[in-house]
Design a protein that fits this description.
transmembrane; globular; 0% strand
């Protein structure tokens, strides 16, 4: 006997035909295999190139061998490079999931099913993120190069992968929101990449500029404050939050914590601020996507009021015409 998972008339939230179809069709296209191969190949070539360059710099002192102390730097380079690749691929996978259905004229058919708006949006998001998780897990053999030389614990690698998952969820939620707000896929992709550019680049550039300005006036006073507000800008940048996971002291340097007292700490860790702020952004983006995927339901009350006004106007006009017509008396 087959068990059916249902939650009322909307179907199950996680096991539903939309999610099942996405999982079945996602890996059946050659584009998925090409994307997976290209991703792992780029990251692998980056690791091999870094090792080759490091061996070239150290060949005169210690011979042609890789210094194990450089493995930690290799881990940082691989982690930041993979974060950039995630920022490049995730919007492309999520920005067209709803607008693509609209362009293929299949969205109306999908909305007439028993699936709720939340089930459709979350299923599309889960299928896209599942493919990204598969790609990230496929890079574990590349990270095994770092473990050969030591310097990195498995707990640090696990924290980095959890950070990747949160970043993918953030960019995926933004992509789903833009896909529901814009009817054309090209516009949704452009807006998603624009927001991603603001998160990754604009916040970093703004921090560097403001850091240089604040630093000059920070130490000019006789009694500098305990910390500066400029660190909150870096907390919005994924690269800064990722580095703070590796080096906790980066948070103190970002906030310009007064070094007079060694016990003083940053008001908040950069990675913690990143999680708190963008967790709210994820919920807001998904809420907008769920609300905007069914525009008919949103305008139903307005349509009913317009119809009532039209009927009332029609009744008034007919009454006026009836009063203007002369009454006929019956002939004897």
């Amino acid at each position: 006997m087959k068990m059916k998972n249902k939650t009322g008339s909307g179907g199950s939230l996680w096991i539903n035909p939309v999610l099942d179809k996405e999982f079945r069709l996602r890996m059946r296209t050659p584009r998925s295999f090409i994307a997976l191969l290209s991703y792992v190949l780029i990251l692998g070539l980056l690791a091999i190139g870094f090792i080759y360059v490091s061996m070239g710099f150290q060949s005169q002192q210690s011979g042609m061998r890789f210094d194990p102390s450089v493995s930690r730097i290799l881990f940082y380079v691989l982690s930041i490079a993979q974060l950039v690749l995630i920022a490049f691929m995730t919007p492309a996978l999520t920005a067209g999931v709803i607008s693509g259905e609209r362009e293929k004229q299949t969205l109306n058919i999908l909305l007439t099913t028993q699936q709720s708006s939340s089930a459709i949006v979350l299923s599309k998001l889960a299928s896209s993120l599942a493919f990204m998780v598969l790609i990230v897990l496929a890079t574990l053999p590349v990270y095994s190069i770092v473990f050969l030389y030591g310097g990195i614990s498995p707990s640090q690698l696990m924290l980095v992968f959890l950070f990747y998952l949160f970043t993918m969820l953030l960019l995926g939620a933004i992509g789903i929101m833009c896909s529901t707000l814009f009817k054309r896929t090209i516009m949704a992709v452009i807006m998603t990449y624009g927001i991603t550019l603001v998160i990754f680049v604009v916040t970093g550039v703004a921090y560097l500029l403001l850091y240089a300005v604040v630093q000059q006036s920070y130490y000019s006073g006789s009694v500098p404050p305990k910390y500066s507000w400029v660190g909150f800008i870096l907390g919005l940048n994924p690269v800064g939050a990722l580095i703070s996971i590796f080096e906790p002291n980066i948070s103190k340097q970002a906030f310009l914590v007064n070094s007079g007292n060694l016990q003083d700490d940053a008001p908040i860790a950069l990675w913690l601020q990143f999680l708190l702020v963008y967790a709210v952004a994820i919920v807001a983006a998904l809420w907008v996507a769920i609300r905007r995927i069914r525009p008919v339901r949103r305008n139903r009350h307005a349509d009913d009021s317009d119809n009532a006004l039209n009927v009332g106007d029609k009744g008034v006009s007919e009454g006026e015409v009836a009063e203007m017509k002369p009454t006929r008396t019956p002939e004897n």
